[in-house]
Hints:
With 336 residues, this protein is α/β, with parallel strands linked by helices. The protein has helices spanning 12-22, 57-63, 76-86, 103-109, 148-157, 182-189, 211-223, 244-255, 287-293, 301-315, 326-335, and strands at residues 2-6, 26-31, 44-47, 67-70, 92-98, 162-168, 170-172, 194-198, 208-210, 230-233, 260-264. It has a 7-stranded parallel β-sheet with strand order 3-2-1-4-5-6-10, sandwiched between helices. A two-stranded parallel ribbon has the order 7-9. Strands 8-11 form a two-stranded parallel sheet. Helix 3 links the parallel strand 4 and strand 5 (92-98).
Amino acid sequence: MRVLFIGGTRFxxxxxxxxxxxxxxxxxxxxxxxxxxxxxxxxxxxxxxxTQLEDFQGQFTKIQxxxxxxxxxxTEEQTQKHLEILQGxxxxxVAISSVDVYQAWGRILGIEAGDLLPIPLAExxxxxxxxxxxxxxxxxxxxxxxxxxxxxxxxMQSDKIxxxxxxxxxxxxxxxxxxxxxxxxxxxxxxxxxxxxxERAKDWIAPRxxxxxxxxxxxxxxxxxxxxxxxxxxxxxxxxxxxxxxWIDAIGQAAGWQGEVRPVPPELxxxxxxxxxxxxxxxxxxxxxxxxxxxxxxxxxxxxLRRTVDWDREHILPNQPPIDYRAEDEIIAKxx
Length: 336
């Protein structure tokens, strides 16, 4: 199968491309050429900017891709424009979306009021009622017009190209540019005996997934005809969902850390360490993906965390600024 990526050289797209190539598929990636993450030699490259995507329509058509995986659909207007360009290039497009479409995420952000919503969330669980969840960041912020709800509507309602939507959790792993483990791992590497967390977050459950498993799910949804006109979750099973305290403990086990995670009242913490999910947890029901596409994890939680810790130790932590632990030490002293 011929696969065209729009974006996808940094993290999730890169690993998906690797798995597609290892499975015998032909992969071309359209990108700006600014990423320094290594890609397999067999990957074909088209260099350009997504703001001029129409200039590359002819090159895309020559590839005759069976499916397009678009990693960077962010706004309604952009999605409409890109689908107009790509609808004659390929019969299918896979759009990468996010758990932030859900009303439950609006509860966490504090932008929507209401009772706590039950988990796990299914693909038909209520979506946010308030659009543009990050507009308070200001007009100059790239997220001003961002909303994956609107992106999904355009993709799934198109009558010119078959759409697939994949809603992702919080993804960790090698080449994670968001450094999801770094804050906790840095403290572990600095041999902190106690890691403090906001007591309001200790029982919070968040959807997570290791990069290899996420990429495997995207690949299956992209190469299977069953994936057309479907929305899928990919995340660790709900039964394996971890609270924030369990998540830190799991990182600690992978890192060989023997310390203690201690929840404390938020008023004792610096503002930068406070986190209030408003009591709303999120986990994802991924049974549709498992039943329809025979998805299962190719890496365990333990293996994924161990690989991530090893990679972060070599690539992320050496470049992290040192943490000033004075405030934390004062809090620990008070608690003692």
